[in-house]
Amino acid sequence: MRTVGVDLAAEPVRTALAWVDWSSDGARVDRVKVGADDGLILDAVMKADKAGIDCPFGWPEEFVDFVTAHRNGHVEVPVGPTGREWRRDLTLRVTDQVVHDLTGLTPLSVSADRIGHTAMRCAGILSGLARLGRPVDRSGEGIVVEVYPAASLNRWGLPHRNYKRAANLDRLGNLVDALQAAAPWLDLDTCEEACRSSDDALDAVIAALTARASALQMTTTAPPEQIDVARSEGWIALPTGPLSKLPVQP
């Protein structure tokens, strides 16, 4: 089995892509590429059994309705709630709020933060997969699943804060050490140095590990009453089992 992880950014220069091969003995990171363009991402995902992409797959439905209403005339502002309260459903998707409830982490707002630029690129990549015959179910069924590496690390009991940016290279190295101790079956091979020097590279590996968990049905999924909104907005897969279980099943 091969899983792919994508730490997507608005431009290729900060986009990392990881390929992970799985066997009965464990997993090996075959390759990590920082500076991945759309063509390389599409090729990697098309050849994978499951891919995890760290980026919102859609926008909050209430935000889309709000913008549409504003374009067509005037929006209706609820009476009573403060601005922050009534804007919550405009800025956070259902899955973002679920992630916060389960982990205490709040994903970046796709409608009110710069992650929106990355989501626009992601939408184009998902469309590209559809054109190549692999349409994407944004709820996570099928070839691609939305992931959030920091939340995956949180669920696996690993350090998940303050490891990004050049100023935190020591913390990044400590996280790699913690990952290797928790998953001795994971062979970073020639990609270890990339993971120690680039948080984008490590996040791509974590995305690939989460894709494996999703393929094994070891992640959260949208409940029946939220499946329609998940197929519109996207749904972040959170691990539901220990990291040690990932290499057990074929």
Could you explain how this protein is built, in words?
With 250 residues, the protein is of the alpha/beta class. It has a single domain, classed as Nucleotidyltransferase, domain 5 (2-Layer Sandwich). Helix content is 43%, strand content 13%. The chain has 10 helices and 6 strands. The chain has helices at residues 38-46, 61-72, 83-91, 94-103, 115-131, 149-155, 169-182, 192-197, 199-215, 227-233, and strands spanning 2-7, 16-23, 26-34, 50-54, 144-146, 186-187. The chain has a 6-stranded mixed sheet. A hairpin with an 8-residue loop joins strand 1 (2-7) and strand 2. The longest helix has 17 residues, at 115-131. The N and C termini lie close together (8 Å). The relative contact order is 0.21. InterPro entries: DUF429. This is DUF429 domain-containing protein.
